[in-house]
Amino acid sequence: MTETELLVDPAVLREQVREKYREVATDPTQPFHFHTGRGLAHRLGYDEAAVAALPDRAVESFAGVGNPFQLRRLAPSERVVDVGSGAGFDTFVAAGQVGREGRVVGIDMTTEMLEKSRATAAALGLDQVEFREGLAEELPVEDGWADAVISNGVINLCADKHAVLSEIHRVLKPDGWLQFADIANGRPVPEGALRDIDLWTG
Amino acid sequence: MLTEIGFTDIAVGEPVDTFGGAGGEKNARAYEVYGYSFLARRPVPPH
Fold first, then answer.
1. Residue-wise DSSP of A49-67
2. Does B46 touch chain A (CB under 8 A)?
């Protein structure tokens, strides 16, 4: 898809998303237009014991929109990519499901989120977890590496969804699973609103 | 779009009221925005 066919400028949208999620990383208790943290994880139906086992810093910046583990639980020893891993909440839940024999690679473009998720992984001693800097449209993962790709509330914030889903398809093994959560609207949004970049993030 | 890219076995979970009680609730209600879980498989290519 060419840039002229997209509703908004991908680079401008990306910078606004970065700015918003920088705040979520560094000041997660301020009011946002979305819920965050443990209350949100409960609302979305996450396994209570899995969430309770995580320290506050692993959960407080969680800002997902659904539960990517609802339709399929990850299997032990699977290799997983988390697209838009943020402060690492879903990555850490995934690490618990795949166990020490598995691998989970979280990918995010926001420096503050990467710093937070890497520090939490180190504090938890999760050797099977790694965080890489990158974009959803250009995942820093080799072809056919992943048994599963997870994502939560990220694809809707990408201007070129076809590019993101094609990239996920590339990194999945044949017979691999994409399991993601995202928002969808039941009533049409006017084109003017779709082109208003401020409405994408706030 | 998932089918066009080559995914199969697509499933969608029940809607979740993601924005209920949050600042974004008004816009979410206006356009019936909910959170969903999605599942899709990259199939094994035919031999």
1. HHHHTS-HHHHTT---SS-
2. no
Are B16 and A66 an interchain contact pair (Cβ–Cβ within 8 Å)? Answer: yes
Fold entry, domain A7-201 = Rossmann fold (3.40.50)
Whether pTM > 0.90 for this model: the answer is yes
Partners of residue B7 in chain A, C-beta under 8 Å: 165, 169, 178
Question: How far apart are the C-alpha atoms of A117 and A62, rounded to whole Å?
Answer: 11
Sheet bearing A129-133, strands edge to edge: A129-133, A103-108, A79-83, A146-152, A172-185, B33-41, B8-12
Query: Checking DSSP bridges between strand B33-41 and strand A146-152, what pairing results, if any?
Result: unpaired
A48-67 confidence digits (pLDDT tens)? 999 999 999 999 999 999 99
- What letters, b where the CB count within 10 A reaches 16 and e where it falls short, cover B5-34? bebeeeeebebbebbeebebbebbeebebb
CB contact under 8 A, A72 and B32: no
Q: Which of A93, A87, A85 is nearest to A46 (CA)?
A: A93
* ipTM summary value: 0.93
In single-letter form, the type of residue at position A13 comes to L
| A184 phi/psi in degrees, rounded to 5 | -145, 145
Neighbours of A166 (CB within 10 A): 15
Retrieve residue A44's tokens: 């979305």
The residue extents of the domains of chain B are 2-41
Would an 8 Å CB–CB cutoff place B43 in contact with chain A?
A: yes
Average pLDDT value over all residues in chain A = 92
* A185 to chain B: closest CA residue: B33
What's the burial of A129, exposed, middle or buried (CB within 10 Å: 0-12/13-18/19+)? Answer: buried
